[in-house]
Write a structure and sequence with these properties.
Layout (H helix, E strand, L loop, with lengths): L1 H11 L7 H13 L4 H11 L4 H13 L1 H16 L3 H17 L1 H4 L2 H10 L7 H10 L4 H23 L2 H5 L1
Helix pairs in contact: 1-3, 2-3, 2-4, 3-4, 3-10, 4-10, 5-9, 5-10, 6-9, 8-9, 8-10, 9-10
Length: 170
């Protein structure tokens, strides 16, 4: 699913992809979007034939930018959103989605957050992991470190698959 979304987004930004700066902008933006995050950014970087390590750094930067905002501000934002009927429904949906996955983090705390963010499977990632962390009122600084390290792990795993590193080794 992530690869299909990445392909679609690369197609949308097609005109920008004509320059190297435009390509880097695409992967940076894709890495900031929930669901896609760094995983989608690295797939797009591979499709755009961008250098692996520069792409990793740009995708990492794009993926970590939202993390502090989610950890520190999502609860107050959700409180405000609940005041409006339609926005309150979005909050309930987000909380239900997070609560359905929270046991994966709740038991192992910061190790759980690290693994939840770091193992690139559908429904996990920095956005959801940090939302769960905020809803569980986990320590924000420790959560930030766990999420950052998780993004690095996810990036390494995605580099292996997106750039065919295993194929080069064997």
């Amino acid at each position: 699913m992530t690869q299909k979304l990445a392909n679609f987004m690369v197609g949308i930004f097609g005109g920008v992809a004509g320059s190297i700066l435009g390509k880097y902008l695409i992967i940076f933006i894709l890495s900031m979007i929930p669901i896609l995050e760094l995983r989608g950014g690295l797939i797009a970087a591979s499709l755009l034939e961008l250098p692996m390590w520069q792409s990793f750094l740009i995708c990492f930067a794009g993926n970590i930018i939202p993390i502090p905002f989610i950890l520190w501000f999502i609860n107050p934002i959700f409180r405000k959103m609940r005041e409006w009927k339609h926005l309150g429904k979005i909050v309930v949906w987000c909380e239900n989605k997070a609560n359905s996955k929270k046991e994966k983090i709740e038991n192992l705390k910061y190790w759980g957050l690290f693994l939840f963010v770091g193992i690139p499977i559908p429904g996990t990632g920095a956005w959801m992991g940090c939302l769960i962390s905020a809803l569980l009122n986990m320590d924000k600084k420790k959560s930030l470190i766990s999420a950052f390290l998780g993004v690095i792990l996810a990036g390494i795993i995605m580099l292996i698959f997106s750039y065919g590193i295993l194929g080069r080794i064997f």
